[in-house]
Design a protein that fits this description.
Largest sheet: none
Strand content: under 5%
Helix content: over 70%
CATH architecture: Up-down Bundle
Radius of gyration: 18 Å
Order of helices and strands: HHHHHHHHHHHH
Structural class: mainly alpha
């Protein structure tokens, strides 16, 4: 397990983020200025609601300190690579999901260290044996997310035809690598995971459901289109659990903190299926109402 975590995990995460980057174009970032309300609403939901809900659940469910920090760490992660696909399947605005993933992957450089520092102080305090270095965390997140995303965007900008040809294959490989990361971490931390599954499982399931509902609710409150609400819900519910595992195991050298990310990685797929079913019905209802009104 140490060899997998120390060598393969960073490489796998970098590949996953490269696969995300090769799907991006500059307009995915400029959309912030073209659709400010939708993008800002999504950013508020993901950067504020997510860690706040994770924190509240950790306190309310009285999670053990390491599990509490791990859950908040997960909440501070950006959107996952599969969020755009789930948004597409749910018939939401996939472009908005891509934009939110791109922006939060960059903002995580600043937001994750802040959230994690507060979580370690609150839940572990002086008992913590974890050596937390903001510089090391920022460097790790930068090298494993920002650099490969930028590299992927560069490939698309210079060789768009090549990017189109390999995009699908890279996405499938990235999915397999994500599954491998989850399985490897599960095997390595199975004792800690099984010991805490009774508390972490409900917390992860509740986090997934609450943040998706909160994201959609915020979008409705902002009077965004339903397709945008679906995108924001998807972006909130599908976190970059691989990054949470990487930070816990490699940057912080505290593998137990990865347990919530592993559990969430398994459960969020159930939530994704539920979102697809509910969102399709919700959007169909809107079309029916609009047709009747016309």
């Amino acid at each position: 397990m140490p060899d997998v975590v120390g060598t393969l995990l960073p490489l796998a995460l970098a590949f996953i983020m490269f696969a995300v980057g090769i799907t991006l174009v500059p307009s995915d970032f400029t959309r912030l200025f073209l659709q400010p309300k939708a993008v800002l609403g999504g950013l508020v939901a993901q950067l504020l609601f997510l860690p706040a809900v994770a924190w509240a659940l950790a306190v309310a469910l009285r999670l053990p300190p390491e599990m509490a920090v791990g859950l908040v760490l997960l909440g501070a992660c950006p959107g996952g690579a599969s969020s755009a696909l789930i948004t597409h399947l749910a018939r939401g605005t996939a472009a908005l999901s891509v934009t939110l993933t791109a922006i939060t992957s960059l903002v995580a450089l600043v937001s994750m260290p802040v959230v994690l520092q507060f979580a370690l102080a609150e839940f572990m305090g002086e008992r913590s044996a974890i050596e937390f270095s903001v510089e090391k965390l920022v460097r790790g997140v930068f090298l494993m997310t920002t650099v490969p995303v930028a590299a992927g965007m560069l490939v698309r900008a210079l060789r768009p035809a090549l990017a189109d040809r390999v995009q699908g294959g890279l996405g499938r490989v990235a999915t397999l690598l994500f599954v491998a990361i989850v399985i490897a971490t599960f095997v390595g931390q199975r004792e800690v995971l099984l010991a805490n599954l009774g508390t972490v499982g409900p917390a992860a399931a509740a986090l997934n459901m609450i943040v998706m509902l909160a994201g959609a609710g915020l979008a409705v409150a902002l009077r965004l289109e339903r397709r945008d609400a679906v995108a924001i819900a998807s972006e909130c519910g599908l976190q970059n659990a691989a990054l949470g595992i990487f930070v816990a195991t490699t940057v912080l050298a505290a593998p137990a903190l990865a347990v919530p990310s592993v559990v969430y990685a398994l459960l969020m797929n159930v939530g994704a299926i539920g979102l697809i079913v509910v969102a399709r019905r919700w959007l169909a209802t809107a079309r029916t109402v609009a047709g009747a009104a016309g």
